[in-house]
Design a protein that fits this description.
With 702 residues, the protein is of the alpha/beta class. It is 39% helix and 15% strand. The chain folds into two domains: 69 residues; 454 residues, Glycosidases (TIM Barrel). It is built from 21 helices and 21 strands. It has an eight-stranded parallel β-sheet. It has a five-stranded mixed β-sheet with strand order 3-7-6-4-5, covered by helices on one side. A hairpin with an 8-residue loop joins strand 16 and strand 17. It is globular. The C terminus is likely disordered. It is an enzyme of class 2 (transferase).
Length: 702
């Protein structure tokens, strides 16, 4: 019981419930190891007793918790509940972000949103300090229901791409979808900086940094200085563009996979040439302002990039001093590599500028929401963020998922988790800065595995995922910071809340205006007759869609091809006949339901295009605020972009968007697709009465 009490004080679970009525104990060795990652010694009974006594003594002596949350409009007048335990006669002082102060009695109802500083002084002379997060009650939401497109940007090549989709393509997609399709948003995969290597991990969900974008997404020709390259440098630049065209044609015409590494080799050299063109006075002033605003975080990221070029992406063999971003050795290396550090700073600035251009295009095209960016659940353990913010991450731990009905072995994602104690002690500074960076050019932010704001499954290094445990975070603080930063950016928030969700999580997210994610095939009356959920019973605060990047396309689902694919790759856990039969029953039930609603011709035979249109017609009939069209669905693509459970067996994250015949389609061909226009016209018509008159760009509702 002593160990359980100690673990509870630090948010470490000693048991968990994979399903209602079932409790699974966590191995004691796991609890001890996880506590050790939080600098709590529990290796012996004596150590447990000493650590427990120290924790309880510290809690009793502490006047204030590290972070205090105040929700505007939530608290009754008077002192917020978290401060109710202060000794009688204590005085308080709040220093606002801008520097002004308010002393006892603090006007709690009139405090502006922000991250302020709270000081307390007890009658016995004790003092305490805390970060004070004052947050609006909810995040902004779209003023009216809208539809939009979901796409993995790398997969969408235009005739101008250098072998993979880029930010120029995103700008064009947003402009076209807004003006021609009536779309209110375009949602893309995470554009976070990747860890370089040979080969680079192509997954956008295991990045080097979530704070900074990847320059591989740059449209080189859109860099203003590109036009001023002359002489021999111009000839080399043109030759690089020619080789990029060969990469593009290989993907689009010869069946080759997207090769991120090959693309980056060409782009990096081209950008090195362009970097020799001096910036004009206005551009230089803008760059200097960006560098000043980004501060130490940008310097650290650029330094890490330069160090990787010299020493490789694996940090283990780096010279010892370089493991610490604040060491004298790192300072010397930064000076020695000053040219490369400057180059990588410049790349971040360029990428930020093209992200801004895509966002402007979306708003100028009339999109009510705009570009929806995606926040991955974590970062690579050897990446830039883990290096620069090492104290904020738990060493020797990895985020994953416990065993469930779909994966008896559990999951280990290879991503170090935030330390909840470090976040709280810093006033959630790393988390705040991350959100601000992502929300700079976002109309909305999708948060992968949004349940991680509440708890994460930690897996100690060397142990299987089955021997992990949950570690709890201060969800109130995590949500308050999220709502505050989204409010400042005027952006909506979407949570990916699929799979096992702890009771109460969806209610807490809904209360704060965070939209969930509802996928048609999973929406059944699970507690009743288990039949398809009627459209009017769907939740309002969600993005309704037919599939995601981790699931089969709608054409593959309707045809059953996804079952055959998983069979060929050895991923089925039951006989093929059983899987096919169950899948066919599921599809048949949904099609019968769509016919019963009048969304599909009851007398016609099987017609894949008509069935896909019926699926999305159904989604538009739900009260969902946002309806997302998986762009491959619009042209009949049958291949998943990612097949969970595979690595080398399937080309995850490397497939171009293709039509029903498997032939890759350019953005230009996509824009002319009759199949796409037939689908999108129905969605636009279905939402016309709700969407028009259109709110002016930037408008938001509550």
């Amino acid at each position: 019981m002593t160990l359980a009490r100690l673990a509870s004080l630090h948010g470490v679970a000693t048991a968990y419930s994979p399903s209602p009525g079932t409790t699974v104990p966590v191995p004691e060795a796991t609890v001890v190891t996880v506590l050790g990652a939080l600098d709590v010694d529990a290796t012996t009974p004596a150590a447990v007793r000493a650590s427990l006594a120290a924790a309880e003594e510290a809690a009793a002596a502490r006047l204030l918790p590290p972070t205090v949350v105040v929700w505007q409009g939530d608290e009754p007048s008077g002192t917020p509940r978290p401060l109710a335990a202060l000794p009688a006669g204590s005085t308080l002082r709040v220093t606002l972000e801008g520097g002004s102060a308010a002393a006892s009695p603090v006007p709690w109802d009139d405090l502006p949103p922000g991250i302020h500083t709270l000081e307390a002084r007890a009658p016995d002379g004790r003092t305490g300090h805390a970060a004070l997060v004052v947050a609006p009650p909810r995040v902004p939401r779209p003023a009216a229901p809208c539809h939009g497109v979901l796409v993995q940007l790398y997969s969408l090549l235009s005739t101008r791409s250098w072998g993979m989709g880029d930010l120029g393509d995103l700008r064009e997609l947003a402009d076209w979808a807004g003006r021609s399709l009536g779309s209110g948003f375009v949602q893309v995969n995470p554009l976070h900086a990747a860890v370089p290597g040979t080969p680079t991990d192509p997954s956008p969900y295991r990045p080097s940094s979530r704070r900074f974008p990847d320059p591989v997404h740059l449209r080189v020709e859109d860099v203003p200085e590109y036009a001023y390259v002359t002489g021999a440098a111009r000839a080399e630049l043109d030759a690089l563009a020619g080789r990029a065209g060969e990469l593009r044609d290989g993907v689009l015409r010869k069946g080759e996979l997207i090769d991120r590494d090959a693309v980056w080799v060409l782009k990096r050299r081209a950008l090195e040439i362009v970097a020799d063109v001096p910036l004009g006075p206005g551009r230089k002033a803008a760059f200097d302002a960006f560098r000043a605003a980004q501060g130490q975080a940008l310097e650290d990221h650029a330094t890490w990039c330069a160090l990787v070029e010299r020493y490789g992406a694996d940090r283990a063999p780096w010279p010892r001093g370089l493991h610490d971003p604040r060491s004298a050795a790192t300072a010397r290396a930064r000076e020695e590599l000053a040219d490369r550090v400057a180059f990588h700073r410049w790349l971040v600035w360029l990428t930020d500028g093209q992200l801004a251009a895509a966002s402007r295009a979306a708003r100028d095209a009339g999109m009510a929401v705009g570009v929806v960016h995606d926040l991955a659940v974590g970062v690579h353990p050897d990446g830039a963020d883990a290096w620069a913010l090492g104290d904020a991450y738990a060493r020797g731990m990895s985020v994953g998922a416990p065993p469930d009905a779909f994966n008896a072995r559990g999951q280990d994602w290879g991503l170090p988790p935030w330390r909840p104690d470090a976040l709280a002690a810093s006033g959630y500074a790393p988390y705040r800065e991350l959100l601000r960076s992502l929300l700079r050019h976002a109309g909305a932010l999708r948060i992968d595995h949004v349940m991680g704001l509440f708890r994460l499954w930690w897996v100690p290094a060397g142990l299987p995922p089955t021997e992990g445990t949950y570690v709890r975070y201060d969800a109130d603080a995590m949500l308050a910071v999220l709502v505050l930063e989204a409010h400042r950016a005027g952006a909506a928030v979407i949570g990916e809340d699929l799979g096992t969700v702890e009771p109460g999580v969806r209610d807490a997210l809904e209360r704060r205006g965070v939209c969930g994610t509802s996928v048609l095939w999973f929406e059944r009356d699970w507690e009743g007759d288990r039949r398809p959920l009627p459209p009017e019973a769907w939740r309002e605060d969600c993005v309704a869609t037919a599939t995601t990047h981790d699931l089969p396309s709608t054409a593959a689902r309707l045809s059953g091809e996804h079952v055959d694919l998983r069979h060929r790759l050895g991923l089925l856990t039951r006989p093929l006949a059983e899987e096919r039969a169950e899948d066919a029953r599921d599809v048949a039930e949904w099609l019968a339901y769509l016919r019963g609603l009048g969304l599909l011709d009851a007398d016609a035979g099987r017609d894949e295009e008509a069935e896909v249109r019926a699926v999305y017609r159904f989604l538009r009939r739900t009260p969902a605020r946002m309806t997302g069209v998986w762009l491959p669905d619009a042209v009949g693509d049958r291949r998943p972009q990612n097949l969970p459970g595979t690595w080398d067996q399937y080309p995850n994250w490397r497939l171009p968007l293709a039509g029903a015949d498997g032939r890759p389609l350019t953005l230009e061909e996509l824009a002319a697709s009759p199949r796409l226009h037939a689908l999108m016209a129905e969605l636009d018509a279905a939402g016309a009465s709700e969407r028009r008159p259109t709110a002016p760009p930037g408008a938001r509702g509550d």
